[in-house]
Fold:
Amino acid sequence: MTQLKALYAEMEKFFQPLWPGEDKPLVFGEGRQDHPKIMLIGEAPGETEVIKRRPFVGKAGKNLDEFLTLMGMKREEIFISNVVKIRPTEVGPTGRLRNRAPDKEELALFTPWLMKEIAIVQPKVLVTLGNVPLKALTNPKITIGDCHGTWMESKASVPLYALYHPASIIYRRALAPVYEQDVLRLSECLRNESTIPKINK
Ligand code: URA
Structure:
């Protein structure tokens, strides 16, 4: 068994008893597991991700494709995961389940496992999408509006590049060119690795 499979088996054992009677399947990371250039980290899976048990395959998958096109990379070249591995839901006004942002308790439960996942995958850089993974891996006081398109030190001792969550662009169209610029800058940095800051381990 690979180290990553062993970690995911350990997670199943840990999380299964936490929510008895509730259907909360875990959606794990996927992609290149041995030192990929990029480990992309989202917030949490949505409805389609839970059905398919794969990250970024629903609407977010389309956003991911745009990111990959701008980067000139293929999905298999990078590792893709989320901070929270269950779908956080709430009941909406029509009585249907809808997505919500992960709460403090979920973040506290899942972040240590994300750290272990990063330590196994050992990516060259972390790319976070939106506030949730950014705050989990740096500092809860930092916000994406202040540091998108910049390099940060992460708690995982891997350089972190912050991007807006592509889904947020659907609600704030003015962010689209900003997001694109940020992705192109990341692509440029990866082509010229001396521009990626060194992190003291
Ligand atoms: N789907 C995911 O897997 N992650 C996100 O952050 C959003 C949608």
In short: The longest strand covers residues 38-42. Helices lie at 3-15, 47-52, 59-71, 104-121, 131-137, 144-147, 166-171, 175-191. The CA atoms of residues 48 and 58 lie 5 Å apart. Residues 31-191 form a domain with the Uracil-DNA Glycosylase, subunit E fold (CATH 3.40.470.10).
